[in-house]
Amino acid sequence: MIVDLATLDQDQAITQISQLESQLFGPSAWSPNAIRQELNAPARAYWADIDPATTGIPAIRGYAGTWFDGYDTQIMTIGVAPQHQHHGIGQALLRQIIDQANADHAERILLEVRVDNTPALALYANNGFTRLGLRKRYYQPEGIDAYTMSLDLNPRTIGFQPTHA
Predict the structure, then answer these.
(1) How many CB atoms sit inside 10 A of residue 115's CB?
(2) Helix, strand, coil proportions of the chain in percent (round to 5)?
(3) What is the mean pLDDT of residues 126-147?
(4) Residue whose C-alpha is closest to residue 90's, from 45, 132, 122
(5) Which residues pair with 79 in a beta bridge?
(6) Are 47 and 96 in contact (CB under 8 A)?
(7) Phi-psi sector, 73: left (phi>0), alpha (psi -120 to 50), beta
(8) Of 23, 32, 35, 118, which residue is the least packed, with the fewest Cβ within 10 Å?
C-alpha cells in the first residue's frame, strides 16, 4: 500500500529507509542525516510502500522520492527491500511518481540509474523512459557510471500550432 511518507513517524521512517539504503546501495547509500535532509528539502515528495498487515510501526517495503522544479520532476531515489522485489512494488512506486508528475503538470521526468542495475533499467524502459546520456563515475565511492533517462509527459510542439476559433 503506497502512502505519503509524511504520514509516517519521520524518525521511524528514516531508520527503516537507512537500513534499506545500506542493503540496496552499499557504500553509496544515503546516511540517516542525508535522508532527513532530503525528506525536509523544499519541493520534495516522498512515498513509502507499507505492509498493510503490519500492526504497530508500519513496515516499509519500498520508498521513492522526487524533486519538482516547476518544469521537470527528478526522481531522487527508488528502493525496494530485496525480499519484496519482483512483486510490483517498484512499479507501483513509479506509477505514483508518474501520476504526481502529471498532476504537477511536469514536462518530463528525469533520473540517473546505475548502468549495472538491470532490474531498474528494465522497469524504466518498460514505462517508456529513454536514455539521454552517460555520467561517468557518477556513483561514489565505487566510481560506477550512470545512465541519465527521461520520460516526456508533455511533449513540446515546435512550429505552427492550429488556432481554435
Answers:
(1) 15
(2) 35, 35, 30
(3) 94
(4) 122
(5) 63
(6) yes
(7) beta
(8) 118
Percent of the chain at pLDDT exceeding 70: 93
Instruction: Give the three cell numbers for residue 80.
Output: 525496494
Q: In the predicted model, is pLDDT for residue 162 greater than 90?
A: no
Distance CA(57)–CA(12), nearest Å, equals 8
Q: Are 115 and 146 in contact (CB under 8 A)?
A: yes
Using one digit for the tens of pLDDT, what is the confidence trace for 66-100?
A: 999 999 999 999 999 999 999 999 999 999 999 99
Chain centre to alpha carbon of residue 128: 15
- The residue behind cell 556513483 is 139
Q: What is the pTM of this model?
A: 0.89
Residue 35 per-residue DSSP state: H
* Residue 163 in grid coordinates: 488556432
The answer to whether 149 and 128 have CB atoms below 8 angstroms apart is no
- Give 121: exposed, middle or buried? Use CB within 10 Å, 0-12, 13-18, 19+: middle
Cell 516522498 locates to 46
| End-to-end C-alpha distance for the chain, whole angstroms | 46
User: In this structure, are residues 21 and 115 in contact, taking their beta carbons and an 8 Å threshold?
Assistant: no
